[in-house]
Structures are given as structure tokens and as C-alpha cells.
């Protein structure tokens, strides 16, 4: 099934950058700009060069990108941990569990791709309890990033 075809079902894919179709890349960049730059009124350099190194989690529903995130391998964001970032949810799908499902898929993929590494994230502080539901614990004092208060959070590597 094509994940971009209209469907009431949320279809989630994990796709490395070099396998993204142009229309899919456009969808994910448009969603991130809408959420981070427009809604949060935060002008920052979203295209940071790391997307080319990432696996992209894409949740499509009704033919529309409902949620996305990206996974970075250890050494890209943190020297000793993989990372999930650029977590964004379309305003059209908030409150429907899309964000939780897309983020859970990102966690699951990290554990498959990098099973011996913890997952570390730079979380907007107001989302600490959201990420806490996935086993992430705060491991830093609050800090300011792009004008928004963040904290570093980590989920331990799965037991072998």
C-alpha cells in the first residue's frame, strides 16, 4: 500500500533520506516549517545538513503528512547516543494519537538500528511529560535553544 494514498488508517514509514521521493521531502519540510517556524514563531535554520544522514519517520493519514520525526545515528547529535528530533505533528491531527504513534515508531526504529545505544533528545521543556511516557528521563538543567526552553532527556539502551 502506498503510504501517501488517502486512507483513514495512519500509515507510518521509516525511510532513509536517500530513498525519499521529492514530494515526500517537500511534505516533511513543509510540515516542519509550519510547526516550528510559523506556529512557534521561531526563525531558525531547519535545513541543518543532518537530514541527509537521517532516517525519516513519516505518518500519513488521508493522503496527508500527519506527523514526522527524524532519527540520527550515534555521533551525529550526541557522541554516544542516537537521537530523535524534528518531531512535528500537523495541527489537523493533534489530539488523535498521531504524535504518540509516530514517536513510538521512532523509538522502535532506534532500538532496531542502534540496539546498544541510549536515545537522547533535546526536548522542549513543556513536552517533558509526553516524552516521559516513552521512558525518557530528564538529564539536564533547562537551556534556551532558538528562543525556546529545552531540556536534554534520555532513554536507556535496551537490555541485551
Task: Give the SSE map.
Blueprint lengths: L10 E6 L5 H18 L15 E7 L2 E9 L9 E8 L8 H16 L5 E6 L3 H5 L4 E2 L4 E3 L2 E8 L5
Parallel strand pairs: 4-5
Antiparallel strand pairs: 1-2, 2-3, 3-4, 5-8, 6-8, 7-8
Report on the architecture of this protein:
It is a single chain. With 160 residues, the chain is α+β, with helices and mostly antiparallel strands. It has a domain of 105 residues: Gcn5-related N-acetyltransferase (GNAT) (Aminopeptidase, 3-Layer(aba) Sandwich), CATH 3.40.630.30. The chain is built from three helices and eight strands; from the N terminus they run E-H-E-E-E-H-E-H-E-E-E. Strands 1, 2, 3, 4, 5, 6, 7 and 8 form an eight-stranded mixed sheet that branches. A hairpin with a 2-residue loop joins strand 7 and strand 8. The radius of gyration is 15 Å and the shape is globular. The N and C termini lie far apart (34 Å). The relative contact order is 0.14. The model has no long low-confidence stretch (mean pLDDT 92).
Q: Can I get a quick summary?
A:
The protein has helices spanning 22-39, 98-113, 128-132, and strands at 11-16, 55-61, 64-72, 82-89, 119-124, 137-138, 143-145, 148-155.
Radius of gyration in whole Å, from Cα? 15 Å
Structural class: alpha+beta
CATH superfamily of the domain at 11-115: Gcn5-related N-acetyltransferase (GNAT)
The level-1 CATH class of the domain at 11-115 = Alpha Beta
Would you tell me which CATH topology of the domain at 11-115 applies?
A: Aminopeptidase
| Largest sheet: number of strands, sense, barrel closure | 8 strands, mixed
Alpha carbon gap, first and last residue = 34 Å
Principal-axis shape: globular
**Strand proportion:** 25-35%
Q: Give the SSE string.
A: EHEEEHEHEEE
CATH architecture of the domain at 11-115: 3-Layer(aba) Sandwich
The average pLDDT value, as a whole number, equals 92
